[in-house]
Amino acid sequence: MTQLIDVHHHFLPEEYVKAWKASGTIPPGLTPPKWTPEEDLAFMNRNSITTSILSLSAPGLTPLHPPTSQAPFARKINTLAASIVESNPTRYGFFATLPISPSSIPLSVTLSELSHALDSLSAEGVTLFTSYENLYLGNPFFRPLWNELNLRSAVVFIHPASPPSSPSPSSSSVGVPPPIIDFPHETTRAAVSLITSNIIRDFPNVKIILSHGGGTLPFVANRIANLGADAGVLPPGKTAEEFIAEAKTFYFDLALTAFPGAMELVLGFAKPGRVLYGSDYPFCREGTVRRQIDNLREVDEAGEIQAGVVGGLFPRFLAGRGDTEER
Hints:
Strand order of the largest sheet: 1-2-3-4-7-8-9-10
Distance between the termini: 23 Å
Radius of gyration: 19 Å
CATH class: Alpha Beta
Oligomer: single chain
Number of domains: 1
Structural class: alpha/beta
């Protein structure tokens, strides 16, 4: 594997971390790790990661109050990300952060930041979270956003957020922070929402990346498709076979999934060229990142996982344009 593009790679600007801590929404055991641009690049060099696409992780901008403060903060975050890319254009790209609050922010504000990020800041795509204020991404509220993304043939990186009914951040009945268990299920719920709402069918130009191997989707897709068809709960006219076909249109990153068994399940479900590498740095410890990279290299010696993706999603990162030394 000659080139490793990391599509699930977070950055934590100091001002964002301060706002997150002040919100009281950080689950115990998931304290934000220290992050700096210098250490980020050193991590990439140590692990032979050619290029990383930066994104803001969950909970995104939701801790900000009032919600109307999201728009100027998103502009600040996106401008910062663009400056990091500008300083090392072969090593970085970024997914833009969008201000979204169904109860407080008009979609026109969201669309304005989308245009600025893609047109003025040259973002590689945008980050969307699995739900906002109890609305999953297939909800009709989001259709104007999907329409604009479709017109632009945009790349959308979907990252899980805590479910609407998530336990308190200070407690967990099973002994681990809720996101460790809930995040894969949230990704699955969002993916199913996009299929059953016909977002996937109606906006086929959008290229959607699901985090963490698609959550549990590769494992439960056939169960949902067939039981949903039998129970008559799929959209009118949508068969189990069509549900599976649409589920296979997603791209799947391997963040926290490049382990024996799980990785093979994703590779067996996804279409060729639709599996991407992701580290989940800096939330994933470096030792765990290295084990996953080693597992990936054993399975993908020819680099086919990366080869089918880079040109179609991020053509400016084609092989030969990145270097592994800090400039």
